[in-house]
Specification:
The chain is 52% helix and 10% strand. The chain is of the alpha+beta class. It has one domain: Glutaredoxin (3-Layer(aba) Sandwich), CATH 3.40.30.10. The longest helix is centred in the first third of the chain and has 18 residues. The model has no long low-confidence stretch (mean pLDDT 95).
Length: 200
């Protein structure tokens, strides 16, 4: 079985727009997914990027137009100015790391629930009650919000270092077991084709 390393940020609108595309592709090709949440703002600083708020107005305007177009094409709701953006990504990321380690629920669903909470439901994904609700909704014990915080912090930091080392510079970012890199939810088709070619 091949594996896909998925680097993402829980506040990334483009990762939100990826929906369950990665999970569907993985299921189609019998691949596993390792979810690697990271601090996207720190990643930008380490790889020559700039936080959205600090970009030139032309880039900000284009990003907003592109998000609206993509959401419309995908028939996905999107609040372009969510009430809690940006927010602290660490608590939700720790919960995902703890959930992946514990098993028993649907990690992909958990990841998507955090992104939907931010970009559709105007919820603060750094809030403990929101985190617990997302965990429960994805089939995990809500107490994971409290347990494994040290491991979560260590893994979260390690994910950033690994991302920089492996050439990740944005989110969503997918790396296959044979080292092929795909950046952006609009590259999921290419990821699908690559995995199909590996089997042929």
């Amino acid at each position: 079985m091949t594996n896909i390393d998925y680097f993402f940020a829980t506040i990334s609108p483009f990762a939100y727009l990826a929906g369950d595309g990665l999970e569907n592709i993985a299921a189609k090709h019998g691949a596993s997914i390792t979810y690697k949440p990271l601090d996207i703002m720190a990643l930008f600083g380490r790889t020559g990027g700039v936080a959205p708020k600090d970009r030139h107005p032309s880039r900000i305007e284009y990003r907003n137009q592109d998000l609206v177009r993509r959401a419309k094409r995908l028939n996905m709701p999107l609040n372009l100015k969510p009430a809690h953006f940006p927010t602290n990504m660490a608590p939700s990321s720790y919960a995902i790391i703890a959930a992946q380690a514990s098993g028993g629920g649907d990690v992909g669903r958990l990841v998507r629930s955090f992104m939907r909470a931010c970009w559709v439901e105007d919820k603060d994904i750094a809030d403990d009650n929101v985190i617990r609700a997302c965990l429960s909704g994805a089939g995990f014990d809500a107490s994971l919000a409290d347990s494994g915080l040290l491991q979560g912090a260590e893994t979260y930091a390690a994910n950033l270092e690994e991302a920089v080392e492996r050439g990740v510079f944005g989110a969503p970012f997918y790396i296959t077991q044979d080292g092929e890199r795909f950046w952006g939810q609009d590259r999921l088709e290419d990821l699908d084709a690559h995995l199909a070619a590996l089997k042929s």
